[in-house]
């Protein structure tokens, strides 16, 4: 008898369309996709059109690297006369190898150090309970909004006073002390780990550093990778810091961005160059490639890292 | 079962250990863990800001490392030097134009990607993200040639439609739009943040809206926009702070050479600050410019937060 009464509202629930969608929440492809042919045509037209817009400069660049000097500006996407010598000559024209190895060393140091230090600090904020913890973490978040322009000049003078001008130390030294955004990111990740495993390890005699090194770190490899590749990219692309700290040495000491900027001036006709833009283009392509390879392997992490940024707002 | 709940409740009621004994071993270890950040903060943030404030009241001589106090004269110079106001105007112009354009463009791209199945979207997502991976110098050197007024590809494209393209890199009226175009080309970071927000909008809200008779446009404005307003707000603030400090593209395209003689139309505060500090070596004056920029960024951010909170929809209230 009771079951008959109960079955009545249940049937009503099942016929409700909202209940049906709740039963299949994983339906990724939403039902509101454009149904009409025209709607779909516009959608695909826009998607492909924007793809062309985004890809065009790359295709143009690739084509330009195979052109002789006088053809660089002809805007053909397939060179009229194919020249392969640019890829050989660019290494003689510019100290490209030195730039790439400088940039690589600095980027690896910068990314490695900031990943380790930020994680350490983040673990301190995530696991330990101590007086003023929330206040201090508020300060971390506050520094995230601090514009870099304000501290640019005193930072230069501090490095000067410490005697590190003319070395690459200013380009990665500050990374020893963690970076607010990465501390925030890593802390979020550590907070997701169940506290019980750490307390169990403590009872088993694990040291505090062991908690970080032997438990937290192996469990959060993905977030380590996110931080590492974000900082690697930031360091590889950084123009302003090398301009400040390396510009007074010879071209051999430049990083990739500073080097390309130097090449742009070197070959520009306004400063007496021969307008050898085919070399600049070839160099530009060669220094972009590592980033594209990094993206090909780490795509998932870039997208995860950025999606996480939106959630903190 | 019961014991698990009991211990959980006990843990919640128990006051933190550090109230009873503030500097126990756990607290000490915690301080040790955050020590790197504390040192960094004291030296490179707090110390640097105080140092910067001190320098702004002096004439700093780099060769002898001596600072002679000059009172407020660096700050007075902010109003006397016409280039400060020019660069400030340029920067605000750029920020006001570029931030809304970038948000709208990123939203459009994210919306398009959201409307196709995930497998197809993956390919487009990669294509749209490629410009973001390109180092700014590489992008600048490509666009230096693409935007060339006489033989650049962009004017060639405009020529197909019979439009006589401007001298992007020479005409002062078109210098700032050139930089905005490069910014729009690499807008995909914002796009990915908004795409993640779009994916988080619950499906049943759309279904409910459709049952109530809302069309696609109405759904966009009444469901989508409020539900992603949080992410839009975040992107606006971050992009504004970045736009007010814009440096790379303007420097590379126009002020790379000290004697290039480019007009001041793209002289942004970030560029002028750099020129004063590291080309003219007027550290004191440059520090004053940096503080002016800081105060402006702070005021604009506070205004945005105050103003934005009225429009941001917070799930479950605030």
Features:
heterodimer; A: 313 residues; mainly alpha; MetI-like fold; 15 helices; disordered N terminus; B: 318 residues; two-stranded antiparallel sheet; 72% helix
Total helical elements of chain B: 15
- What is the class of chain A in the CATH system? Mainly Alpha
Total separate domains of chain A: 1
CATH homologous superfamily classification of chain A: MetI-like
Written description of the protein model:
The complex is a heterodimer of chains A (313) and B (318). Chain A has helices at 2-15, 17-23, 37-64, 86-93, 96-127, 133-144, 148-161, 169-172, 180-191, 195-203, 208-219, 221-237, 240-245, 256-267, 277-312. With 313 residues, chain A is mainly alpha-helical. Chain A has one domain (92-312): MetI-like fold (Orthogonal Bundle). In chain A, α6 (133-144) crosses α9, α12 (221-237) runs antiparallel to α15 and α14 (256-267) packs antiparallel against α15 (277-312). Chain A starts with a helix and ends with a helix. Residues 1-29 of chain A have low confidence and may be disordered. Chain B folds into two domains: 2-55, no CATH class; 76-308, Orthogonal Bundle (MetI-like fold). With 318 residues, chain B is mainly alpha-helical. The radius of gyration of chain B is 26 Å and the shape is globular. Chain B has 15 helices and two strands. The mean pLDDT of chain B is 86. The two termini of chain B are 35 Å apart. At the A-B interface, α2, α3, α5, α6 and α7 of A face α3, α5, α6, α7 and α10 of B.
């Amino acid at each position: 008898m009771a079951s008959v009464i109960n079955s009545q509202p249940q049937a009503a629930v099942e016929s409700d369309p909202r209940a049906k969608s709740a039963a299949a929440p994983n339906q990724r492809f939403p039902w509101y996709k454009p149904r009409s042919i025209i709607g779909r045509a516009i959608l695909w037209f826009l998607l492909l059109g924007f793809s062309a817009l985004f890809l065009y400069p790359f295709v143009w660049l690739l084509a330009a690297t195979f052109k002789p000097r006088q053809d660089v500006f002809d805007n053909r996407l397939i060179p009229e006369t194919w020249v392969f010598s640019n890829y050989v000559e660019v290494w003689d024209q510019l100290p490209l190898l030195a730039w790439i190895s400088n940039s690589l060393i600095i980027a690896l140091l910068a990314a490695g150090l900031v990943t380790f230090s930020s994680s350490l600090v983040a673990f301190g904020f995530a696991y330990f309970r101590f007086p003023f913890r929330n206040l201090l973490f508020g300060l971390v978040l506050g520094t995230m909004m601090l514009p870099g322009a304000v501290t640019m000049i005193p930072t230069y003078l501090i490095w000067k006073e410490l005697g590190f001008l003319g070395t690459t130390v200013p380009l990665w030294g500050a990374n020893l002390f963690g970076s607010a955004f990465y501390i925030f990111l890593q802390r979020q990740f550590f907070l997701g780990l169940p506290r019980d495993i750490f307390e169990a390890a403590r009872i088993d005699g694990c040291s505090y550093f062991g908690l970080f090194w032997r438990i937290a770190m192996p469990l959060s490899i993905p977030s380590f990778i996110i931080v590492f590749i974000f900082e690697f990219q930031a360091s590889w692309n950084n123009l302003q810091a090398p301009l400040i700290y390396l510009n007074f040495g010879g071209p051999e000491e430049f990083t990739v961005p500073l080097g390309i900027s130097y090449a742009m001036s070197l070959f520009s006709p306004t400063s007496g160059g021969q307008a050898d833009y085919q070399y600049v283009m070839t160099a530009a392509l060669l220094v972009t490639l590592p980033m594209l390879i990094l993206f090909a392997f780490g795509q998932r992490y870039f997208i995860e890292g950025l999606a996480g940024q939106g959630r903190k707002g | 079962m019961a014991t698990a709940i009991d211990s959980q409740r006990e843990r919640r009621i128990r006051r933190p250990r550090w109230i009873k004994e503030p500097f126990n071993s756990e607290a000490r270890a915690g301080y040790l863990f955050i020590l790197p950040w504390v040192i960094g903060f004291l030296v490179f943030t707090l110390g640097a800001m105080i140092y910067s404030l001190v320098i702004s009241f002096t004439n700093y001589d780099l060769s002898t490392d001596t600072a002679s106090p000059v009172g407020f004269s660096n700050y007075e110079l902010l109003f006397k030097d016409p280039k400060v106001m020019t660069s400030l105007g340029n920067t605000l112009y750029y920020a006001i134009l570029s931030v809304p354009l970038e948000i709208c463009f990123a939203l459009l791209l994210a919306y398009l990607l959201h409307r196709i199945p995930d497998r197809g979207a993956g390919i487009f997502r990669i294509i749209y993200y490629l410009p973001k991976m390109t180092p700014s110098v590489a992008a600048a050197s490509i666009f230096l040639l693409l935007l060339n007024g006489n033989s650049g590809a962009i004017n060639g494209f405009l020529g197909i439609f019979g439009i006589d393209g401007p001298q992007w890199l020479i005409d002062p009226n078109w210098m700032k739009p050139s930089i905005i175009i490069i910014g729009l080309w690499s807008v995909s970071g914002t796009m990915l943040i908004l795409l993640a927000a779009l994916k988080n909008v619950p499906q049943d809200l759309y279904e409910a809206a459709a049952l109530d008779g809302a069309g696609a446009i109405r759904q966009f404005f009444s469901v989508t926009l409020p539900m992603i307003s949080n992410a839009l707000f975040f992107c606006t603030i971050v992009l504004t702070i970045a736009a007010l400090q814009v440096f790379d593209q303007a420097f590379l395209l126009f002020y790379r050479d000290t004697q290039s003689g480019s007009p001041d139309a793209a002289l942004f505060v970030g560029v002028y600050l750099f020129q004063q500090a590291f080309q003219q070596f007027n550290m004191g004056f440059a520090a004053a410019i940096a503080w002016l920029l800081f105060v402006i960024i702070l005021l604009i951010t506070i205004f945005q937060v105050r103003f934005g909170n009225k429009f941001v929809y917070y799930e479950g209230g605030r």
